[in-house]
Each structure stands twice: as C-alpha cells, then as structure tokens.
Design goal:
Elements (H helix, E strand, L loop, with lengths): L14 E5 L3 H12 L5 E5 L30 H4 L1 E4 L4 E5 L4 E4 L2 E4 L2 E4 L3 E3 L11 E2 L4 H12 L3 E5 L3 H12 L3 E5 L12 H4 L3 H6 L3 E3 L4 E5 L2 E4 L4 E3 L2 E4 L3 E3 L17 E2 L11 E3 L4 E5 L4 E4 L3 H20 L11 E6 L2 E7 L6 E5 L7 E7 L2 E8 L2 H13 L5 H4 L12
Parallel strand pairs: 1-2, 1-7, 2-3, 7-19, 9-16, 10-11, 10-16, 11-12, 18-20
Antiparallel strand pairs: 4-5, 5-6, 8-17, 13-14, 14-15, 20-21, 22-23, 23-26, 24-25, 25-26
Helix pairs in contact: 1-7
C-alpha cells in the first residue's frame, strides 16, 4: 500500500504497528480497516503459527477434535502485513521505534496487545512431564499425554485448571487437582459462591485437594507439603497469568502494580502514540469506580474497536471514544456452562436465583439497588438479560429478582 495514500479528512498515511497476534492484536488490525484506516498496518507475533484463537485450546484442540483454531481473516486482502515468529525486544517511544529480533521497526502509532503469560510453578522448570496450557504448541504437546490416559496432576483450581481437568476426564485420565486455597476459584469468586463448585469435581470423578501446596515436582510424581506423593504421568500448571510486559522495561511506559500497562479511558498509554489493549493493559472504569485488569476473551474482542476508532479519530480531529465495558467471560467445565458479567467487588447485596446444588442457578450482585455483576450456571437467559441491565444501570426489585421463575428483565424496580 503506497505511503502516499491519504486517510479521509486526515494527514498523510501513517504506519500502525500492532504487537501481539492473539485476539486483541488481530482484532485491532482488522478494526482499523473496518474503521476506514487506509495506512500501513503491520501485525507482529512471537509465534510462528498463523494467528489463532485460544479458547478452543483447552477443549476441541486439546482433545484432537480440531487441528487448530486459526482466525478466519484474509490478512492479505485487508492489506495487513504479518510478521510472525518475531520476538519484540523493546520500544523507544521518543524515536517511534520498536526493537525486534529482526531489527528495528518504525511506527507512527503503536498498539501493544501482547496478552498475558502463564505463571510457572517454582522449581518445576525443566522437570520432564510438566506442562503449561497457553499456546497451540502447549496443546499439541498435551494431546498425546491425554491419549495415553496418564495419571495427571493439575496444580491450580482456577478457570484453566477446571477446564483442563474436564478435558482430561473426558479423555479417560485419572485426575487430581491440587489447590492451595480452601476452594476452587478462590481468586475470582466469593467463598459462598465458589463453594458449591467444589462438588462438581467429585461428580466428574476428579479428586480435588484444597489447602494443599506442592513442595516439589519429580519425574513421575508430585510431592505435597504434607510429605505425601501423587503419581503423575504429567503435571499441568494453572496457577494464573501475568501481563506479558517484561520486554517494556526501560521504555518509560507506565506499568501498574500487576506489571500491566496503565492505559487511560481511551486505551492510550503514558507514551505518545502508543495504545494498549487486552490482557496486558488495565483501564479506568467509570462504571465501577476503579481500574480494571481483565484477562478474558471478550475484553480482547471489544477493546480493539475503541483503539481503532481512536486512532482514526485522532487523525481526523474527532473526539476520542471511551472504553468502559461490562466485563464478560464464560467457562465450560464438568458439563456446565458458566458465564459471568460485570464486576462484583463493590457490591453491597448478593441474591441467589435457584438452588446451587442443582444444575442451573445464578448469583446476582447489586450496589445501591442496581445490578453490577452476575454469575449464571446453566442459565444463559439470566446472563443475557443481566448484562443489558448492568449496562443500563437499571434499578432492580430485589424480592422479584430472587424468584428464579421470573425473567430478570421483569424484576426492574
């Protein structure tokens, strides 16, 4: 595409470089074209594979039901230049230069979408049979492990641990999940909400050990802090993820307490002409009155639209768009479809809809009479209606909300 191309109503064509070829990076590049951006767009990814979606890795790809999950995007037709298998090493904002292992790349606008990387189990690196599940290569290495029906120990009872345990049981493996906290999803949900989920493990034939820490991993075994040993043909570590931002050291770009890039309400960073989106960045939420760091697929889908809109708006002198979504994610585990919308941290009221011992129930969180968060297990209608009610800030009638036979949208005040 010619450097002389003009953006409608804007200055001479610019070069936008997007770092990270996951959902947030791909959608940023695609959204730029959808917004009418006609300049150069370069998408840089560390992995050599054609850009792919991650959620299927813990499901269809892992179980061999699908060979991959490449995005259905014709990058060539969109005029998006791909540079795959290329590690980024640093950035010099004052010079508008990105340093990569293939040499420096000049940009006019830079979008940081490097995502998050899994936290490794201390002392387990290099031990045979220890696995992470974040990339396509990780899934390819784990697929034959499941096919051989090994005894598997999963470290961590979070979202990824539960999803992997589900797939391993479906493959016929014996699975033990080890969790340091007193319950599954301890870092994500309140105790009274997460507690009923512990029974799902036993129902699926998975042994869940809470209040349990790993002392060390040996070839073929996991040694726990009480001295007991678990046989382990494979160990899968799912103890969380952190923003992949170590490469930004020395750049001057502001990082937060969790090593995430600090973005403003328009997803701009502290450096000029640099945006950040997806798992690697936090943003201020006016809706919830705090800064949010959201490590979920929907955030990586929605945020790029704001980034693209603002890149084009800046070129044309238009007002900048604000990013303030209702966070959303889902998980498929132990035969259940779990969905969450909103943010419950500042809620002052918790309401249950249905029996948590049953197959379908929801939990609603309210603040000053308005719905701010909702967890739905097997109740997708609650989630769909609740998400819209959170978005609108609609006052709710708590008594009617507690009746699971009544649609949520009929429980407004």
């Amino acid at each position: 595409m010619s450097e002389q191309t003009q953006e409608t109503g804007g200055p001479p064509s610019r070069h936008v470089v997007v770092v990270g070829a996951g959902m947030a990076g791909v959608q940023s590049a695609v959204a730029l074209r959808e917004q009418g951006f006609t300049g150069r767009v370069t998408l840089i990814g560390a992995e050599p594979h054609q850009p792919y979606d991650r959620p299927p890795l813990s499901k269809a790809v892992l179980l061999g039901k699908s060979e991959g999950s490449a995005f259905d995007v014709d990058f060539e037709a969109l005029g998006i230049e791909l540079r795959l298998g290329c590690e980024v090493l640093g950035v010099r904002p004052a010079e508008h230069r990105l340093d990569t292992e293939a040499g420096p790349v000049r940009y006019d606008v830079l979008v940081l979408a490097t995502g998050a990387e899994p936290i490794r189990l201390p002392g387990a690196e290099g031990v045979p049979g220890v696995h992470l599940l974040r990339t396509l290569d990780d899934a390819d290495r784990l697929r034959p492990v499941l096919a051989r029906q090994h005894d598997i120990v999963v470290v961590g009872a979070g979202w990824i641990g539960a999803e992997f345990a589900t797939a391993a049981r479906e493959a016929g493996c014996a699975v033990t999940v080890v969790e340091a906290a007193d319950r599954p999803l301890a870092g994500a949900l309140p105790a009274e909400v997460a507690a009923p989920m512990a029974a799902w493990y036993a129902d699926a034939g998975v042994e869940l050990r809470t209040h349990t820490r790993v002392e060390r991993v040996e070839p073929g075994a996991v040694v726990l802090d009480d001295g007991s040993r678990l046989p382990a043909g494979a160990v899968v570590v799912g103890i969380g993820a952190r923003p992949a931002t170590a490469w930004l050291g020395g750049s001057g770009i502001e990082l937060g307490a969790h090593h995430e890039i600090v973005a403003d309400a328009h997803l701009r960073t502290s450096a000029p002409d640099v945006y950040a989106v997806g798992d690697c960045a936090s943003f201020p939420s006016r809706r919830y009155g705090e800064r949010l760091l959201v490590h979920h697929w929907d955030n990586a889908l929605q945020g790029p639209r704001t980034v693209a809109e603002n890149i084009v708006a800046e070129a044309n002198g238009a007002a900048a768009a604000v990013y303030d979504p209702v966070p959303y994610f889902w998980s498929e585990q132990f035969g259940r479809f779990v969905q969450y919308a909103g943010h419950h941290a500042a809620a002052d009221t918790t309401l249950w809809r249905g029996d948590p011992a049953g197959p379908a129930w929801s939990v609603c969180w309210l603040r000053e009479g308005r719905l701010v968060g909702l967890l739905a297990v097997g109740r997708p209608r609650d989630l769909a209606q609740g998400r819209r009610l959170i978005e609108a800030g609609t006052p709710m009638d708590a008594e009617r909300m507690g009746d699971p036979s009544r649609p949520l949208k009929a429980a407004t005040a």
